[in-house]
Amino acid sequence: MFAKRLVAISKPYSQHTVTYVTKAPKPEIPRNPLRDVYSASSQQTNGVVYDRKPFKVTLEAGKTYSWCLCGRSKNNPLCDGTHKDIYLKITQRPVRFTVEKTKEYWLCNCKQTKNRPFCDGTHKSKEVQEATNVKVG
Ligand code: FES
């Protein structure tokens, strides 16, 4: 019986498939389904660098959120209305967004992402890492 089992699991050398994994797969970067609905999504300027790294947040599917683009919210990465302060002369408006699945997402906190409001790795750039006006260390 033992000899039969060995025969059953052994295959000729040519039938084995060897897969080498040298890097972990890149995480999926979600897109904002509301990016074409609100004009604020296509603003040309970015806000100040709030932080040099993204922030992980659990978001609910179908709920609408406002992501802070100006970088001055005290509730980052979400908007708290600071951009409305006329004395600060902030030109950026928050970006409304939603998600299709309830789960954790990495939201951009450097405010320089090209895939608002989700982190796309731009925070690793020299400009962000060496920014001097960062709100959070
Ligand atoms: S935190 Fe802004 S791109 Fe990652």
TrEMBL record:
Pfam families for this protein: zf-CDGSH
Keyword Iron: yes
Coiled coil location: none
Cofactor: [2Fe-2S] cluster
Keyword Nucleus: no
Keywords for this protein: 2Fe-2S, Iron, Iron-sulfur, Metal-binding
InterPro entries: CISD, FeS-contain_CDGSH-typ, MitoNEET_CISD
UniProt protein name: Iron-binding zinc finger CDGSH type domain-containing protein
Source organism superkingdom: Eukaryota
Record domain Iron-binding zinc finger CDGSH type: where: 52-89, 92-129
SMART domains: ZnF_CDGSH (SM00704)
